[in-house]
Amino acid sequence: MLLAIDCGNTNTVFSIWDGTEFIATWRTSTDWQRTADQYYVWLSTLMRFRKVEADITDVIISSTVPRVVFNLRVFADRYFDTRPLVVGKPECALPVAPRVDAGTTVGPDRLVNTVAGFDLFGGDLIVVDFGTATTFDVVDTDGAYIGGVIAPGVNLSLEALHSAAAALPHVDISKPQRVVGTNTVACMQSGVFWGYVGLVREICARIKAERAREMRVISTGGLAPLFQQSVDLFDEYQDDLTMHGLTVIHEYNKELAE
Ligand SMILES: Nc1ncnc2c1ncn2[C@@H]1O[C@H](COP(=O)(O)OP(=O)(O)O)[C@@H](O)[C@H]1O
Ligand SMILES: CC(C)(COP(=O)(O)O)[C@@H](O)C(=O)NCCC(=O)O
Ligand SMILES: [K+]
């Protein structure tokens, strides 16, 4: 079975893929200091608790935090006796090469989202990922990643208000009842929530205009459900998009090796 690991700047998600479906998914905070042994204690405890029987033979990793990869490699080697595939490394092939400026490093999560989006929905897509950052990944007709947009994440924007302004509290994001807030928290939520609705709408409209074609817009990431429930910004919401992309890339590399 395949253990797929998606490490974002905030959270790291582990999913076990039995070849047909994900039989378990767990999330932990991203911490580059966590050792291989700590990962194993955490994962094996959850597997036992949930009675998940899995013979893990393969591991694939996508990490936006380069420092965590070392310990995850040791984890795969020590506990599953396997050399993991690491997205973005030369030994991990992608079905279609990205078309970006020479020398640019694209976030592996964006490459994986591109592969997943193309596999599920075909070409001409905009994938909006509400993670630590809010990213827009543009997928060409043939499935290539051809660039995109990076905006501050939703929680990052709220945190920035709190840390820079003495009188603004820490606030969790939610959809405000009204646009005009009648207290500080409601004002902040309104600014960020409706600000992001506007940001997504404008950026998608401009991408479509620049590419002079219709494109489907897919949302994913920790905070995507919040926006999915409220406004007609997206054609599809895909909770496990990145995980799906990891299984596709793993399968592709397995076939190449045969
Ligand atoms: N279910 C949730 N409800 C509220 N906030 C969430 C939820 N899941 C994730 N978040 C928050 O959303 C942000 C993005 O999370 P995530 O998509 O896991 O980020 P990343 O992939 O960059 O690590 C983080 O600030 C995280 O705390
Ligand atoms: C843009 C990102 C910070 C998003 O990371 P995330 O929100 O998933 O943690 C990450 O994809 C990254 O570090 N990218 C490198 C630069 C690029 O993609 O062009
Ligand atoms: K992400």
Automatic annotation (TrEMBL):
<comment type="function">
    <text>Catalyzes the phosphorylation of pantothenate (Pan), the first step in CoA biosynthesis.</text>
</comment>
<dbReference type="InterPro" id="IPR004619">
    <property type="entry name" value="Type_III_PanK"/>
</dbReference>
<feature type="binding site">
    <location>
        <begin position="107"/>
        <end position="110"/>
    </location>
    <ligand>
        <name>substrate</name>
    </ligand>
</feature>
<comment type="pathway">
    <text>Cofactor biosynthesis; coenzyme A biosynthesis; CoA from (R)-pantothenate: step 1/5.</text>
</comment>
<keyword id="KW-0808">Transferase</keyword>
<keyword id="KW-0547">Nucleotide-binding</keyword>
<dbReference type="GO" id="GO:0005737">
    <property type="term" value="C:cytoplasm"/>
</dbReference>
<protein>
    <recommendedName>
        <fullName>Type III pantothenate kinase</fullName>
        <ecNumber>2.7.1.33</ecNumber>
    </recommendedName>
</protein>
<keyword id="KW-0418">Kinase</keyword>
<feature type="binding site">
    <location>
        <position position="132"/>
    </location>
    <ligand>
        <name>ATP</name>
    </ligand>
</feature>
<feature type="active site" description="Proton acceptor">
    <location>
        <position position="109"/>
    </location>
</feature>
<comment type="similarity">
    <text>Belongs to the type III pantothenate kinase family.</text>
</comment>
<keyword id="KW-0630">Potassium</keyword>
<dbReference type="Pfam" id="PF03309">
    <property type="entry name" value="Pan_kinase"/>
</dbReference>
<comment type="subunit">
    <text>Homodimer.</text>
</comment>
<keyword id="KW-0173">Coenzyme A biosynthesis</keyword>
<dbReference type="GO" id="GO:0005524">
    <property type="term" value="F:ATP binding"/>
</dbReference>
<keyword id="KW-0479">Metal-binding</keyword>
<feature type="binding site">
    <location>
        <begin position="6"/>
        <end position="13"/>
    </location>
    <ligand>
        <name>ATP</name>
    </ligand>
</feature>
<feature type="binding site">
    <location>
        <position position="184"/>
    </location>
    <ligand>
        <name>substrate</name>
    </ligand>
</feature>
<dbReference type="GO" id="GO:0004594">
    <property type="term" value="F:pantothenate kinase activity"/>
</dbReference>
<keyword id="KW-0963">Cytoplasm</keyword>
<keyword id="KW-0067">ATP-binding</keyword>
<dbReference type="GO" id="GO:0015937">
    <property type="term" value="P:coenzyme A biosynthetic process"/>
</dbReference>
<dbReference type="InterPro" id="IPR043129">
    <property type="entry name" value="ATPase_NBD"/>
</dbReference>
<feature type="binding site">
    <location>
        <position position="129"/>
    </location>
    <ligand>
        <name>K(+)</name>
    </ligand>
</feature>
<dbReference type="GO" id="GO:0046872">
    <property type="term" value="F:metal ion binding"/>
</dbReference>
